[in-house]
From TrEMBL:
NCBIfam families documented for this protein: dTDP_gluc_dehyt
Catalysed reactions listed for this entry: dTDP-alpha-D-glucose = dTDP-4-dehydro-6-deoxy-alpha-D-glucose + H2O
CDD domains in alphabetical order: dTDP_GD_SDR_e
UniProt cross-references to InterPro entries, sorted A to Z: dTDP_Gluc_deHydtase, NAD(P)-bd_dom, NAD(P)-bd_dom_sf, Sc_DH/Rdtase_CS
Keyword NAD: yes
Species this chain originates from: Thermasporomyces composti
All residue ranges annotated as the NAD(P)-binding domain in the record: 9-312
Name of the protein this chain belongs to: dTDP-glucose 4,6-dehydratase
Length: 332
């Protein structure tokens, strides 16, 4: 980045992962980014919540712009004067993409292209494109290196894969400093309660049943959001232009094993579990090989799953005022 105290445009930071990144950055959690200023650009969809940024909203380095990343005129106005982009904004829930994919294509594909185009015109880079391991598809054994082909199965992952390819094309064609990250499943505080971990925790806290898809044997690698965001900060600090970095190293669990741990953490039993029809096209297992980011950038996950999950359950227990209105509004 060109300045020692850079200005960073962070899209989608009223959501789960982006808000964690901004809260950590502005409270000194990334020494290499100390003193950086942050502009958050967020449309505040159902998943965006300004309260997620409450702990940092009054800090001098913070500013907020309410708007859509697919609005080219707005992006053109906001982007100049920044030294980097960290792009989190997306429609992110697979189940919603199965019901209707138009918003996914609009935000994830068209919105990402709009940002890239403006970044190129105004010479703003590095551009960190935050993507997901879901772009690789499903893998029964072993792990995907960054060189594996993309075989996404859901409209969500397909829209993310499309945006990854457009982002990388801006590097290869135009020389824009684009860096792509692909992380496994995150958990932690402030995650919208439609996603499996907060949905199960909050249902159990409300004395409701939890819906377990299919045979419950789908496998995910659960990584604390803090580890994901630290990896993104490392990619911003010292990643290489045009490179893809997988981020993983969490705890691999079947959904049944995850449910077992959540039931125990919330003091419930298997009587609270209801098996429901499997998600259409449900990927069986995700697993990224994260050797590259470990060897090149020195990333290692630091959050132990057991402690992280206990802290997450405690956070939802103590913050009912945060999630109760969200669940009500989303009819969850
Ligand atoms: N949560 C995970 O487990 C995970 C794992 C790997 C990668 N990712 C990626 O990280 C990013 C953030 O995920 P998340 O879980 O925080 O999502 P989220 O749904 O919690 O938040 C998305 C944010 O983007 C905003 N947004 C949506 N459309 C927008 C638009 N058109 N213009 C501006 N803002 C818009 C929303 O208002 C919201 O604040 C996504 O790109 C996702 O693909 C997430």
């Amino acid at each position: 980045m060109s300045r020692s105290t850079p200005a960073i445009l962070v899209t989608g930071a009223a959501g789960f992962v982006g808000s964690h990144f901004v809260r950590t950055l502005l409270t000194g959690g990334y020494p290499s980014l100390a003193g950086a200023r942050v502009t958050v650009l967020d449309k505040l969809t159902y998943a965006g919540n300004l309260a997620n940024l409450d702990p940092v909203r009054d800090l001098p380095g913070f500013s907020f712009v309410h708007g859509d990343i697919a609005d080219a005129a707005l992006v053109d106005e906001v982007l100049p004067g920044h030294d980097a982009v960290v792009h989190f904004a997306a429609e992110s829930h697979v189940d919603r993409s199965i019901k209707g994919a138009a918003d996914f294509v609009m935000t994830n594909v068209v919105g990402t292209h709009t940002l890239l185009d403006a970044a190129l015109r105004h010479g703003v880079s590095p551009f960190i494109h935050v993507s997901t391991d879901e772009v690789y598809g499903s893998i029964l054994e072993g792990s995907w290196p960054e060189t594996d082909p993309l075989q996404p199965n859901s409209p969500y992952s397909a829209s993310k894969a499309a945006s990854d390819l457009i982002a990388l094309s801006y590097h290869r064609t135009h020389g824009l400093d684009v860096r792509v990250t692909r992380c496994s499943n995150n958990y932690g505080p402030y995650q919208f309660p439609e996603k499996v971990i907060p949905l199960f925790i909050t249902n159990l806290l409300e004395g409701k049943k939890v819906p377990l898809y299919g045979d419950g044997l789908n496998v995910r690698d659960w990584l604390h959001v803090d580890d994901h965001c630290r990896a993104i900060a490392l990619v911003l600090e010292k990643g290489r232009p045009g490179e893809i970095y997988n981020i993983g190293g969490g705890t691999e669990l079947t959904n049944k094993e995850l449910t077992d741990r959540l039931l125990a953490a919330c003091g419930a039993t298997w009587d609270s579990v209801e098996y429901v029809e499997d998600r259409k096209g449900h990927d069986r297992r995700y697993s990224v090989d994260w050797t590259k980011i470990r060897e090149e950038l020195g990333y290692t996950p630091q959050r132990d799953f057991e402690t992280g999950l206990a802290e997450t359950v405690a956070w939802y227990r103590e913050n009912r005022a945060w999630w109760e209105p969200l669940k009500k509004r989303a009819a969850l």
